[in-house]
Amino acid sequence: MAYDILLTIMTMVFALMVVFSKKTVVAAFSLLMTLLSIAMIYFQLGTVFLAAIQVLVNAGAIAILFVFVMMLINLEQFQNNRERSKSKLIISILTTLIILGVFSLIINNNIEVLSAVNISDNSMKTLFDKLFTEYYLPFEMATVLLLAALVACIVITGSEKGIKQEQEKLQENLNE
Amino acid sequence: MSSIYYYLAGFLFTLGLLGTIFKKDLISILLCLELMMGGVSLLIILFSRSTGLLDAQLLVFFMIIVSACEVAIGLSLIIALHRKKQTIYTDDIKIITE
């Protein structure tokens, strides 16, 4: 119970920091901490495998990838200019109220079903038996998807023409 | 008493949605998309816990793979855009309307 509230508050604070921090690097590291707190929640809920995957893939790879890209495009020159407007505030409050209202309606109407703990067999062996028999085809498709993403990243960023253009622009900037 | 996590998932999704709508630079938009993804996967795990279905955990496993691909391609598109237009702001990009 105490852990629940502690983890929830921690995740909420870091999630708020992702959206409201002025520096994008701070936002990226707050996202890392948010994902780690979500991994802790997974761990507490008993899904150990997904907690490990969350730490390895989401926190370890994706959040660090963001920081790498920020270093590549030299984020110092971009200022986070935020203008405050009334319509933004009204839309934000309305959206939050609507989504949380619908959520609380659904949860309060099904509180017995939703708060039940019904872990039948949570062992890794059952999970992987299912993954490599019933979900064999989606697993293979995931590998194909990863390969496609790899090729797409190389094609989009690694073209010689694009790199040449960038070098020419850098030279122009230096000459100016 | 894990029903507080349902509200947390809704909160994360709402925060990510609002950030995606209102943020101006593309990297922050991608960060907020990740936040939404975290909220949704937390919700699916909670449903898996209350129904006892293991399939939901595998669904989250595949979701993590897809989100990794999404972030990699999105970031490489940002780099390509920065090469071409020297900007990452959504206000400066009017390729479709030009």
Architecture overview:
- The complex is a heterodimer of chains A (about 180) and B (about 100).
- Chain A is an all-alpha fold and about 180 residues long.
- Chain A has 8 helices and no strands.
- Chain A has helices spanning about 1-20, 25-45, 50-70, 85-110, 110-115, 125-135, 135-155, 160-175.
- Chain B has a single domain, classed as Helix Hairpins, CATH 1.10.287.
- The model of chain B has no long low-confidence stretch (mean pLDDT about 85).
- Chain B has helices at about 5-20, 25-50, 55-85.
- Chain B starts with a helix and ends in a 13-residue tail after the last helix.
- Chain B is built from 3 helices and no strands.
- The radius of gyration of chain B is 17 Å and the shape is elongated.
- By secondary structure, chain B is mainly alpha-helical.
- Classes of the chains: A mainly alpha (about 180), B mainly alpha (about 100).
- The interface between A and B is large, with 83 and 68 residues.
